Amino acid sequence: MMREHGKFEIRIHGRVVFARLAEAWNLETCRHYAAEILAVGERLNPEPWAVLTNVRDWQLGPPEIRRLTHELTGKLDQLGRTHAALVFSDNKIVQDIVREARTSGPSVADAAFFDTESAARAWLVECGFGDAEDASVEAPK
After folding, report:
1. Cβ-proximal residues to 84 (8 Å cutoff; 6+ apart), any chain
2. Contact yes or no for 50/83 (Cβ under 8 A)
């Protein structure tokens, strides 16, 4: 097995999960992230919950992570995720990949895309997730 490269940070505040992805990922990092966020979803289930994912510092990964991302989307929905707020980088390629992953699968969660984390938090508050108002995730170290 290869060593992971790329970083992520996941924090929970009430019923909102904050995830920040950074650097270029390999398949091992994607699998690790999937396992971590699924474990969080299992803890929050059966209550509805939301995720705010910030990919402003993410620099993509190998093509194989697309399949894993599609599978992860469905599993998170099954675990009670009802809303997904995604904060984009200025990188058009990242934007296209994240949008495609979010919109091409069978997700039942409401999803919205934002330029800033504060706008994403405000949307989640409007959707009934007041826990999003005063929390965020620091950049991964």
Report:
1. 50, 51, 53, 102, 107, 109, 110, 111, 112
2. yes
- By C-alpha distance, which of 34, 72, 44, 54 is closest to 131? 44
Tell me which residue of 7, 22, 12 sits closest to 135, measured CA to CA.
12
Q: How far is CA 18 from CA 1, 92, 93, 124, in A?
A: 28, 23, 23, 11
pTM: 0.87
β-pair type (49-58, 81-87): parallel
What is the C-alpha separation between 18 and 26, in angstroms, rounded? 21
CA distances from 76 to 1, 34, 43, 113 (A): 26, 10, 12, 18
Ordered by start, the domain boundaries in the chain are: 7-132
The tens digit of pLDDT for each residue in 72-122 reads: 888 999 999 999 999 987 777 776 766 676 665 556 678 888 999 999 999
CATH number of 7-132: 3.30.750.24
Q: How far apart are CA 35 and CA 41, in angstroms?
A: 10
